[in-house]
Amino acid sequence: MFVSQQEDPLSRSIHTVLERRLDAKERLCLPCIVICLAVVASTACGPKEQAAPPPPPDVEVVSVVQQDVPVVKEWVATFDGKVNAQVRAQVTGYLLKQNYQNGAFVRQGEPLFEIDPKPFQAALDAAKGNVAVAEGNLQRAQAQQGKTEQDVARYTPLAKESAISQQELDDAVQANLAAKAQVQSEKASIEAAKAAVDTAQLNLNFTNIVSPVDGIAAIAIAQVGDLVGPQSPALTTVSTINPILVDFTPSEQEYLTAMKVTGGNEAEVRRRLDFKLTLADGSIYPATGSLYAVNREVDVRTGAVLVQASFPNPGNLLRPGGFARISAVTRVQQGALLVPARAVSELQGGYLIAVVGDDNKVSLRPVKVGPRAGTMWVIEDGLKLGERVVAEGTQKVRDGLVVNPKPFQEKAPG
């Protein structure tokens, strides 16, 4: 078999092995095998083409700005009626009627419930009868007193003339004194009987249970036919909700900060603070509120103080027990450094911002954050005015990476 003198050692070795094992017929295909092996070897051992490096990732950057920022504080709040009057039965009896619709607005003095008045009407009639009896007794006592006074007047000159004994005069005087005492006793009885009439009349009036205030009446707890009385639970509750109170609990530090801004003048705090409400469905309540009251004490368990704000509620939309978020501008931070809130990343309790240098290299820098101001975040330490920070594409960057910065485009909500 012919073998070219220019073949490399690998090819010659392959030929030698094949020549030993292949028969004459197989040797006819040997040149094809050699060519294939040469092609494979050249492909496997040849130089590889180098891949082009990826371009720097695009990120959107924004410069650190400086401006005066109103510091807004927000708290979780609950609604409460300005007056929450618990309506109770003041006399014991069977509930005869409910005169209002559950959950309706009621006026002061409007009937809510009626207790069976018949026993109380009977007691009133009996008390009036006792007054009549006492007045009759008084008339008899006064008549008796008139007789004893006449006896004393007639016996006195007779005793001086010794026409009668002194003992008879003394008996007449004592009888007159007793008659006077009886008259006074009967007068007192009349007063007691009249007081009993007043009590019976009052109890009869209590069978008609009325609303003590203008407000929304709750769903009745007691039902018609129940035996109710002064020791029974409240029949219902009527809440005055226009204006409505909003309860929230700022910390002692927040309370002190607000007071120091106004020099400790609570009237000035009332004038300066305007409260806003974000309702449970995320909507903003159209009316603003004012400070109504600050509790006398700081809760030693929570370190917070109860504060109440008053909001107009003409349509009775807000109801006691509801939840909302209440906010107010408590102070203005002068010359604050601001970046978009989306530029700030939280990591293990700390905060990082990706800063892009003049060479377009990223530096991950820890910062100290302050309060939020809308979509911006106050940076108290770690940044300088005018530095560029990554606001969009923070997930693409790492420390030392070269990026392609572009101006940040604020996207519309939603």
Folded structure, characterized:
- Helices cover 32% and strands 34% of the residues.
- It has seven helices and 19 strands.
- The model is unreliable at 1-7 and 32-45 (pLDDT under 50).
- It folds into five domains: 9-45, no CATH class; 60-69 and 334-407, Beta Barrel (conserved putative lor/sdh protein from methanococcus maripaludis s2 fold); 72-80 and 238-333, Elongation Factor Tu (Ef-tu), domain 3 (Beta Barrel), CATH 2.40.30.170; 89-112 and 208-233, RNA polymerase II/Efflux pump adaptor protein, barrel-sandwich hybrid domain (OB fold (Dihydrolipoamide Acetyltransferase, E2P)); 117-206, Helix hairpin bin (Helix Hairpins, Orthogonal Bundle), CATH 1.10.287.470.
- The protein has helices spanning 9-21, 24-27, 30-45, 118-160, 166-206, 252-261, 266-272; strands at 58-63, 65-87, 93-98, 105-106, 111-115, 208-210, 215-217, 227-228, 236-248, 275-279, 290-299, 304-311, 323-340, 345-347, 350-356, 362-373, 376-381, 388-392, 404-407.
- The strands form two sheets. It has a 15-stranded mixed β-sheet that branches. The protein has a four-stranded antiparallel β-sheet with strand order 6-5-3-8.
- Helix 1 runs antiparallel to helix 3 (30-45) and helix 4 (118-160) runs antiparallel to helix 5.
- It has 414 residues and is an alpha+beta fold.
- The longest helix has 43 residues, at 118-160.
